[in-house]
Amino acid sequence: MKKNVLSLVVLFLFGTMSVFAETKTEELKVYGNCGMCKTRIEKAATSVEGVTKADWDKVTKMITVSYDESKTDADKVLAAIAKVGHDTDTHKADDAVYDKLHGCCKYDRPDAKEGEEKHAGHDHDKDLKKSCCASSKTKSCGDKKK
Ligand SMILES: [Cu+2]
After folding, report:
1. How far is the CA of 89 from the centre of ligand 1 (A)?
2. Is the pTM of this model over 0.90?
3. 18, containing H or E segment
């Protein structure tokens, strides 16, 4: 008898959950540098059907996304973000796409190949970061592409 009550409670809980599960909010790791990255990442995330909110933090490198679970999932969101050049823990951006990013957006890739991504001796990217990414304002970077 007690078991029956318990399973009823469990069933009830699941029922309640599915009502609230329509919109799911998750925090996910996305690699990037500056305000331009933020714009690019959030634009990619919100372009996924079902995503209602996307907010990327350039300090923590975490994106908070809210989406309709019946329409999409975290995997699709991360895939869309990787497509515009930003690595995530589950999806890697194409090298070609990454290479086209603005200088100050060339974040340190989590799986950077030794000697290839990091040139010892000169540090263009560091200087760029200092000059164009010191400010959190998106425009300060000056989008040079296209
Ligand atoms: Cu950037």
Report:
1. 18
2. no
3. helix 2-20
